[in-house]
Each structure stands twice: as C-alpha cells, then as structure tokens.
Amino acid sequence: QVQLVESGGGVVQPGDSLRLSCESSGTIYRFFRMAWYRQAPGKQRELVASISSGRDTTYADSVKGRFTISRDIRKNAIWLQMDSLIPEDTAVYYCQAQDYWGQGIQVTVSA
Question: What is the DSSP letter of 23?
Fold first, then answer.
C-alpha cells in the first residue's frame, strides 16, 4: 500500500522559515510528478508547488520567490523550503503523487 507521510510543520512567526518533508513507501514506482497542496480554513485546496522527474517545477504566484520545491527521485521524496513566511501561508499542507495524498500537516504563521 502506497503511503505519503509529511513532516516538518509547526507554528512560526512571520518572516521565519520551515522545511516540509514528504516520504513515500509501498512502491518502487517512481512518480512522474509530485506536488505540495495546501488548504486554509474555509478555502479550497490549492496547488502550492510541483516537481517532475526531470525536476521541472511550477509554483503558485503567491509563493514564487519564497518557496522552493526539491526532490529525491530515487527515494520518491520531496521537500518544500518555505522562507519569508506570512500569515496567509497558514494552512494544512498536503503531499500528493498521482492518486495518493498524505494525511496533511499543519503550518501556522502567527505573531
């Protein structure tokens, strides 16, 4: 059974940094694309960043220049380096690959 497990969330102040990790298990298949999504209270889930097996990346406009997605293809693992965090980044962050989703991890940015 394929599992995606996120880690690294927490409570930080505006301007701080966090690094989210997502590790997969249960498959030897290398996902073509892996991504981070987030969902804030009362809002729809949105794509934050994605990365292909060729390391092509896409970012939401709201995080460009602040967030960086990276990947270990062999391990089917991805990371999200989040810098200059703002309160609007507060959300549950999810790792996604194909039809699989992680359980989500809370990121709270508050003074």
Answer: E
State the Cα–Cα distance between residues 105 and 92, nearest whole angstrom. 5
DSSP line for the chain: --EEEEE--EEE-TT--EEEEEEEES-----SEEEEEEE-TTS--EEEEEEETT--EEE-TTTTTTEEEEEETTTTEEEEEE-S--GGG-EEEEEEETTEE---EEEEE--
pLDDT score of 111: 93
Q: Do the strands 18-25 and 46-52 form a parallel or antiparallel pair, or are they unpaired?
A: unpaired
Token representation of residue 104: 């989500």
Alpha-carbon span 75 to 98, nearest angstrom: 16
Q: What is the DSSP string of 57-88?
A: EEE-TTTTTTEEEEEETTTTEEEEEE-S--GG
Q: What is the pLDDT of residues 18-49, one digit of tens each?
A: 999 999 988 777 889 999 999 999 999 999 99
Residues 20, 26: Cα–Cα separation, whole Å: 20
